[in-house]
Specification:
heterodimer, A: about 170 residues, alpha+beta, 60s Ribosomal Protein L30, Chain: A, 2 domains, four-stranded mixed sheet, 8 strands, about 50% helix, B: about 450 residues, mainly beta, Rossmann fold, Neuraminidase, seven-stranded mixed sheet, 31 strands
């Protein structure tokens, strides 16, 4: 009896999904990925790092404000380095701008460790900007640990979006 | 702060022989609570006592304390056969045995001027003798503390261990959506009474911890966006930053004598452990590794420190001497470990463990052997010990749905046995609990 019901539910899901795909075909591809969280997860997270553009804001035209990290990691991916290069270039062109880099962690870690991890992430970004010629006097860092998620969900995509460092103008 | 007048007078001590009606086994737990008859104390119809229902309230507080311990059950007073003042002098033991009471609490309450005089006796109904008796004198408004102290005396007499009911919990009260969470320090009695917010919520505050000897709390505040360790005097409300550090200080905890604060300092992406003497203000660096060193906690004799580090590639628990020497990993069962807290008895370390996607609260011996996991959940962390080392409180979070709703955070308690798990009721969501020692 139970298995029959499960089978029925499974069919129903498949039918609904087929209908959903059919509906998606008529809309442009980009919005299709952003409306379906299940199918976009595979695309938007690579090696545990968020590679999508939801939640990303711009410091200036073509200068994204944030980079993303893998779980319990503070290594900078190639994409993160490219973003930081853009930030460095923009900071050089705007010599009076000062910034704070906020380091954040996802909710799957203890509070105190995550404060330290957020500090590591913010400093990893700061160090990279310094290698690009930005003076440390223009950059402050702050760790928020897991206290300020950008996505309040408890799923892989939310966690990937929350593992980030964000560059914020302070003047 | 209300003035506390309190005298403890031993009533009649027929025997000083310490014996326990309950043997506590930390691995088995006591599945069958010991039935006690807790009677309402007799009184001379003082109008204030009658109006404020003080005798009823005292009985409720004592019953609730003892029942929450999981070791005792309180017999419904409708079942009582004897209910006259004579029972406070000489109970009819057979009547109490008939309703299965193994212990009986009787008492008398009088008001003289502004003072409440509470006299109680605890009887062993099988041995047919008084096993504890005290007179407590205080102000009328202090009836609640008197109740906790009586509950502590009963617990102590019947288990042979110190009670933990006359204690308080400081924690972080949480409100609002996850991405804009408002956090305030809050304090309450161990049973949730006398709840009070200590900060306004304007600044983000985290991880409050009691000073073991003074009415003081250390915690992390984001005041002016500079995350630093602070001190808060509970009586005066005065807050001050601890030390003058060039980076974020966090994960503070007092030394057992209350004179020092041990904490992490983050500098250029690296977190190490430091200790600051609160009197001399001298700061000493204890660890110097390129890894994260955090969540330090002293052993009760102050000679050793347990802490969390990922120096070996994953988060594990370490111990060292209090001067930083002899650093050694102790966790070894697999998985990630965090938030080690040394038991007030000295023999155990409580921790959070993250293993195969689940979070556990557990205990291990101080050499890492004998690991026991007490509770498993989707997310929980930050254990804090009861003053007698028998109970742990911690916080637990529920999973949010994809829209970010359905998330909540609450404080729970569990016995060292792994039994008697209970949610502690708070007015709003709660996290980061810290349990005080017995109030002096």
């Amino acid at each position: 009896m139970v298995s029959t019901l499960q089978n029925y539910t499974r069919y129903l899901v498949i039918i609904l999904f087929a209908l959903f795909l059919a509906a998606c075909e008529t809309v442009p591809k980009e919005s299709a990925t952003s409306t379906s969280s299940t199918s976009s997860t595979a695309v938007e997270i690579k090696d545990g790092v968020y590679v999508g553009s939801d939640t990303v804001e711009m410091l200036a035209i073509d200068v994204p404000d944030r980079i993303f990290f893998a779980y319990d990691s503070y290594s900078l991916t190639i994409a993160a380095q490219n973003t930081l290069k853009k930030q460095a270039k923009w900071l050089k062109a705007n010599g009076s701008v000062t910034i704070t880099i906020e380091g954040h962690a996802d909710e799957r870690g203890t509070r105190e460790y995550n404060l330290a991890l957020g500090d590591r992430r913010a400093n990893a970004a700061k160090d990279y900007l310094m290698t690009q010629g930005i003076s440390s006097s223009r950059v402050t860092t702050i760790s928020f640990g897991k206290e300020r998620p950008v996505n309040s969900g408890s799923n892989k995509k939310a966690w990937a979006q929350n593992r980030r460092s964000v560059t914020v103008r302070t003047n | 702060m209300r003035k506390l007048l309190l005298y403890l007078v031993p009533l009649i001590l027929f025997t000083n022989i310490s014996y326990a009606l309950i043997e506590i086994d930390i691995t088995e737990g006591n599945r069958e609570p010991l039935p006690l008859a807790i009677s309402e104390f007799f009184h001379d119809n003082n109008p204030e006592v009658v109006n404020k229902k003080i005798t009823e309230n005292i009985r409720t507080v004592i019953s609730d304390d003892l029942e929450r311990s999981g070791l005792f059950s309180s017999i419904d007073n409708k079942a009582f056969i004897q209910n006259n003042r004579a029972m406070h002098l000489k109970p009819r033991f057979a009547d109490w045995r008939l309703i299965k009471a193994q212990g009986l609490l009787t008492g008398e309450l009088t008001v003289e001027e502004d003072r409440l005089r509470v006299e109680f006796r605890l009887w062993d109904t099988f041995a047919e003798k008084e096993i504890e008796g005290l007179v407590l004198i205080t102000t009328i408004d202090n009836w609640r503390r008197i109740s906790h102290m009586i509950a502590d005396k009963i617990y102590e007499r019947l288990t042979g261990e110190e009670g933990y009911f006359d204690t308080r919990i400081v924690y972080v009260a949480e409100e609002g959506p996850k991405n804009k969470r408002i956090k305030k320090l809050a304090i309450m009695d161990q049973d949730g009474a006398n709840h009070k917010f200590l900060t306004s919520g304007k600044e983000l505050v985290l991880t409050p911890r009691f000073n073991p000897v003074r009415q003081e709390i250390t915690y992390l505040s984001y005041f002016k966006n500079l995350p630093r360790v602070y001190l808060l005097n509970i009586q005066t409300g005065i807050q001050e930053v601890v030390g003058d550090f060039p980076g974020m200080t966090f994960a503070p905890r007092f030394s057992p004598d209350g004179g020092k604060i041990i904490m992490s300092l983050a500098r250029e992406g690296n977190s190490d452990l430091y200790v600051m003497d609160l009197t001399t203000r001298v700061v000493e660096r204890l660890t110097d590794s390129p890894a994260i060193d955090t969540s330090p906690s002293y052993s009760p004799d102050g000679k050793r420190i347990t802490f969390n580090s990922d120096r070996g590639g994953s988060q594990q628990i370490y111990v060292m001497d209090s001067n930083g020497r002899n650093q050694k990993r102790i966790s070894k069962e697999g998985g990630n470990y965090a938030t080690p807290v040394w038991s007030p008895r000295g023999d155990l370390i409580a921790f959070t463990k993250f293993y195969q996607g689940q979070y556990f609260i557990g205990v291990m011996r101080t050499d890492g052997s004998g690991e026991r996991l007490l509770t498993e959940n989707w997310y929980q962390e930050a254990p804090s010990w009861s003053s007698n080392g028998r109970v742990l409180i911690f916080y637990r979070e529920t999973k949010a749905n994809d829209a970010g709703d359905g998330h909540s955070s609450s404080i729970w308690s569990i016995d060292l046995t792994g039994f008697n798990e209970r949610k502690i009721i708070t007015p709003v969501d709660a996290s980061d609990p810290s349990w005080s020692k017995l109030i002096q």
